[in-house]
């Protein structure tokens, strides 16, 4: 496949879990990068807030899935490493063509600054944010390009 774009350099973004058993490379630019303050994200990662970066599912290449586990609670499917327990990614029926990786799973998390806060009304009281980013009360898709 050959695409006529401004840059011909191949795009690839890599990620790996804490133990290295789960690795992936995405051959695409991300289509979203956001914080999420919802209870489901908070509980699944044990963190006050999570940041996720989404890539087209068909551009994601997994190095192995031997220890990649899935847990679905009806609203989202959480992917994590069954060996080290690291949160890896999430999948949503409402955005079935995108895999949302936990930004901390990526090898270069600085490359994916979030562009908004989703479910901002559920932010923890003591978590102060002064970044000026848009805040919405739902999930959204925001282009990062
Ligand atoms: Zn692992
Ligand atoms: Zn969430």
Précis, in short:
The protein has one helix at 39-45, and strands at residues 13-16, 23-26, 32-36, 50-56, 60-62, 68-72, 77-81, 87-91, 98-102, 117-118. It has 145 residues and is mainly beta.
Structure, explained:
The chain has a domain at 13-31 and 48-111: Metal Binding Protein, Guanine Nucleotide Exchange Factor, Chain A (Beta Complex). Helix content is 5%, strand content 31%. The mean pLDDT is 90. It is globular, with a radius of gyration of 15 Å. The chain has one helix spanning 39-45; strands spanning 13-16, 23-26, 32-36, 50-56, 60-62, 68-72, 77-81, 87-91, 98-102, 117-118. The strands form two sheets. Strands 6-7-8-9-4-3-10 form a seven-stranded mixed beta sheet. It starts with 12 loop residues before the first strand and ends in a 27-residue tail after the last strand. With 145 residues, it is mainly beta. One zinc ion binds at residues 17-19, 21-22, 81, 83-84, 86.
Termini distance? 21 Å
Put simply, the count of helices is: 1
Biggest pleated sheet: 7 strands, mixed
Q: Percentage of helical residues?
A: under 10%
The CATH class name of the domain at 13-31 and 48-111 reads Mainly Beta
Run of helices and strands: EEEHEEEEEEE
- CATH third-level topology of the domain at 13-31 and 48-111: Metal Binding Protein, Guanine Nucleotide Exchange Factor, Chain A
What would the principal axes of the Cα set say about the shape?
globular
Number of strands: 10
- Which consecutive residue ranges, at least 5 long each, have pLDDT under 50? none
Rounded mean pLDDT is: 90
Bound molecules: zinc ion
CA radius of gyration: 15 Å
Beta-strand level of the residues, as a percent range?
Answer: 25-35%
Spatial sequence of strands, sheet with the most strands: 6-7-8-9-4-3-10
CATH architecture of the domain at 13-31 and 48-111: Beta Complex
